[in-house]
Amino acid sequence: MKGSSHLITGTGVSLACAALLHTPLTPAAAAAAVIGSLLPDIDEPGALLLSRSLPKPALRLLKAVLLIAAAAVCWLARPYAPWNWAGCALLALSVFATDRKLRQALMLLIAAALITAGLIGIPWFVLQGGFPQYMLLPGEPLAAVIGGVLGLCALLPHRGFTHTLYATAIWTGLLYWIAPAEPAVWQAGGIAYLLHLLTDALTQRGIRPLPPLEWKLCIPLMRTGKFSAAVFETLFIGMTFVLVWIVFVQMGGWRLWIG
């Protein structure tokens, strides 16, 4: 199933489900739904997370924005050298990380930085009296957890760990940990992630939701890139729009949106 189809169905259905639970919806919940609908394919060997979801002009624009952001980080964060150069390098590398090995190296580098920041602390420099002074900011355990999961995803094959119920639980738990006061965040994000797995289970490859158990969830209704996939993806997208219309328009679910 194409990334754009995952994006539309996962985001629409998950937000509609959260609305049916009468949960107040926020922009953060929408963002969690968008990311959750695409996140299982972070281990995709042929493309970046968004490269199968956005048209080429939008991707080129995104790359340009990232390069501009890299330059801005390097310039505006000059007092925090050398970390401004590290942030600039990571953003710049992400633009060209279309090769699997390069992307793996980038993901492992970010994972190592997150784990270090979570367990040890964040090394930092501040200017005092015109001279840079070294300091170590307190670590955040959540950063270490996120780094560990990211590193694991970088090393495993496509449709490996990220396509399991374990990964779904970890993602949902992280969202709850980040925003416990906003239930729509973990509800929409978790449902979107799970829906991605369920739709992938409808392809010929299927998924193994509970490794090391050999049981495979596979209902081969469609094959990626084939006519059957186009038919079912169009059907799922149409059903998503119908559900969104019923929940947010006919049932008044739009009133649950808060700023």
UniProtKB/TrEMBL annotation:
Under the heading InterPro entries, the entry gives: YdjM-like
PROSITE patterns (alphabetical): PROKAR_LIPOPROTEIN
Q: Which UniProt keywords apply?
A: Membrane, Signal, Transmembrane, Transmembrane helix
Superkingdom is: Bacteria
Please list which residues make up the signal peptide: 1-28
Transmembrane segment boundaries: 57-77, 106-127, 133-156, 224-248
Output this protein's name. Metal-dependent hydrolase
Q: Identify the species of origin.
A: Paenibacillus beijingensis
